[in-house]
Design brief:
The protein is mainly α. It has helices at about 5-20, 30-50, 85-105, 115-135, 140-155, 165-195, 200-205, 210-230, 240, 245-255, 260-270, 270-275, 275-300, 305-325, 330-355, 375-385, 395-410, 410-435, 445, 455-470, 485-500, 510-535, 545-550, 555-600, 610-630, and strands spanning about 60-70, 75-80.
């Protein structure tokens, strides 16, 4: 089946073309079926390939489709790499993507047929780009997919383009991603100059022979790209604003596709980062800082989607912290579990918003568990999973990262654990405000409250099951020997890096103590959060101090506006109103006026009088004669 890997991205591309070109005459039902079946077909092929890709005895297969760039000194084929890492990501992307497409058929039912088809065309193109990114056998093909998801995020965030704020959010995402993409592009140029190739099979085996300073430069530039795509400080502010798009889009961007691209790139390039300890330290510090900053902001957000958005930024920070300390398997493990429970939470939030007629402020919700029983129980499962309560999936993946961080740096561990505590608090604050207490919305909203249709609740149920059981593929060695299936499966990908790492074994007793203490404290925080907010009543009291700062997101957007936007606008206004008007236009218009004036003066030479012409001829002859003498 590996030879047919090209079918995986081909199906979404076909779905995009059919829905995109036929949007004016396709019915909504047909558009939804085509879009969903395209991703389902990709999932089926991915699963069949997965069955072939064994953890032991399977060597990476490179499937070359055609020559993409071929010159005297450079050969870049359009080829796909089939190995354990790419296949795992294929399953996550197409599996979660299929559920989101199915969910979208009901969530977007109010759209006009033309817009409905356009929406599914964009979704299919998004998935196609992400599949291209993870399948690429070299950095150039990866970069094509990388740019593709950036374009699709712009199209989907600004899907309701008649709203100016949504357009601004889409532009913000596009511009901030381009900043990161420049770093990635420079890294690709440097790789070509250093290795003469962009293929993983050429670069990785000889990486250890490259000067550490060069590897540090390359990996730092690549990390700048990851910072943009995966929303790390300082390029994270676009992600919360991406909530402007439809809720299923938020689930797709935040769970299984775009924001995990940076994690995938570093995991794929793991040997380069292992050989660059300085870059790893930078990755760890920025990941930790991002995790804590985003978690503090989420504490005071009242928009249900904004809480989940900052939660995503925080969880991505935790994944980068894992990559920075060399816990590559743990980071990929958390990508997988996060894809399940974060997609579940976003789709659950979408179900709530659907029932509340597009209301997103949690202060106007409350008591919804009796109206939305399926949404309530699945949302609760997602909250338990992300909080890291055993035996749900988030516990296993988060614990693996935290234990790796503890053996690397004790301070980092305690700070990361603090971020985990904040996660438990703000998630159950959100849960209590939404589902407990009395309903705080309008009478009309309460009258129309109802559970979502099957097309929306079935994906919630499937994701809830995955959020519960997915962690068992990575049971810690503390519980059972040889039980970490994912570590064994991904061992061929990370074997070279693991061989170069110096491990610091944490005693089992210490691990039990840390794990037990963390779980007990999280349970206490969960109980406190639910108790505090389940009887919440809206008040007119203005918040101040730190809560006000957190509600305003540490004023980072305002800071960026002051330091970057305003100076750039001032410079643009100067060039527009002064430089353009008086220098450029002045020069162009001045040339025209000068020619016009000169021609007016010169026309007097053509007087029509023979005597004047003879005089000019004599003067000209004398002038040429003088020039000739002086020249000699």
């Amino acid at each position: 089946m590996a030879k047919f890997i090209y079918l995986v991205p081909l199906f979404p591309l076909i779905g995009f073309l059919i829905n995109g070109l036929g949007r004016n005459f396709l019915s909504k039902k047909l558009s939804g079926i085509i879009g969903s079946l395209a991703i389902l077909a990709s999932f089926v092929v991915s699963f069949l390939v997965f069955l072939e890709v064994k953890p032991v005895g399977f060597s990476a297969v490179e499937v070359k489709l055609f020559d993409f760039i071929k010159t005297a000194g450079l050969d870049i084929p359009f080829s796909f790499q089939v190995d354990q890492l790419s296949v795992l990501f294929l399953l996550i992307i197409t599996g979660v993507g299929t559920l989101i497409h199915l969910y979208s058929t009901a969530y977007m039912h109010e759209e006009e047929p033309k817009d409905f088809a356009r929406y599914f065309a964009y979704l299919n193109l998004f998935v196609f780009s992400m599949l291209l990114l993870v399948l690429g056998a070299n950095y150039v093909i990866m970069f094509i997919g990388w740019e593709g998801v950036g374009l699709c995020s712009y199209l989907l965030i600004g899907f309701w383009f008649k709203n100016g704020d949504y357009n601004n959010a889409a532009k913000k995402a596009f511009v901030m991603n381009r900043i990161g993409d420049l770093g990635f592009l420079l890294a690709v140029f440097w790789i070509i100059g250093q290795f003469g190739s962009t293929s993983f099979s050429v670069i990785f085996p000889v990486a250890s022979k490259t000067a550490p300073a060069i590897l540090t430069g390359i990996t730092l530039l690549m990390f700048i790209g990851a910072m943009g795509k995966s929303a790390q400080i300082p390029l994270y502010t676009w992600l919360p604003d991406a909530m402007a798009g439809p809720t299923p889009v938020s689930a797709l961007i935040h769970a299984a596709t775009m924001v995990t691209a940076g994690i995938y790139m570093i995991a794929r390039s793991n040997i380069l980062y292992t050989l660059s300890p300085n870059t790893q330290q930078v990755v760890a510090v920025i990941g930790l800082a991002t995790s804590i900053l985003a978690a503090t902001i989420a504490l005071q957000q009242n928009d249900i989607k904004k809480v989940l958005a900052y939660s995503t930024v925080s969880q991505l920070g935790l994944m980068f912290l894992g990559l920075g300390v060399g816990a590559y398997v743990g980071a990929v493990f958390h990508v997988m579990t996060h894809a399940f429970f974060k997609a579940l939470l976003f789709l659950g939030a979408g179900s709530v918003i659907h029932a509340m007629h597009h209301e997103q402020d949690m202060r106007n919700m409350g008591g919804l568990k009796k109206y939305l029983p399926i949404t309530h129980i699945t949302f609760l499962i997602g909250c338990i999973a992300i909080a890291g309560i055993p035996p749900f999936s988030g516990f296993f993946s988060k614990d693996e990262i935290l234990m790796a961080v503890y053996s690397h740096n004790k301070l980092f561990y305690f700070l990361a654990t603090g971020s985990a505590f904040l996660t438990a608090f703000y998630m159950f604050r959100m849960y209590a405000l939404t589902f407990h207490g009395s309903f705080r919305g309008t009478h009309d909203q309460e009258h129309h409250l109802h559970e979502s249709p099957l097309a929306m609740t079935i994906p919630l149920g499937v994701l809830a099951v995955l959020a519960i059981v997915a962690g068992f593929i990575g049971i810690p060695e503390l519980f059972a020997k040889e039980s970490h299936w994912l570590e064994q499966y991904l061992h061929p990908i990370f074997a070279a890096s693991l061989a170069k790492q110096v491990g610091h074994e944490t005693p089992a007793s210490t691990e039990w103590l840390l794990m037990g203490t963390t779980v007990v404290l999280i349970l206490g925080i969960v109980f406190f959060a639910v108790s505090k907010f389940k009887k919440y009543k809206a008040t007119d009291i203005e918040i101040s101090g730190l809560p006000k700062i957190l509600e305003n997101k540490w004023y980072v957007d305002e800071l960026y506006d002051f330091l970057i936007n305003r100076p750039v606008r001032a410079i643009a206004n100067f060039f527009s109103s002064i430089f353009e008007k008086y220098v450029i236009d002045g020069a162009v218009n001045g040339v025209g006026k000068m020619v016009q004036y000169s021609s007016r003066q010169l026309r007097w030479l053509q007087s029509g009088q023979v005597g004047s012409y003879i005089l000019i001829m004599v003067v000209a002859t004398i002038v040429f004669f003088i020039i000739q003498i002086i020249g000699k």
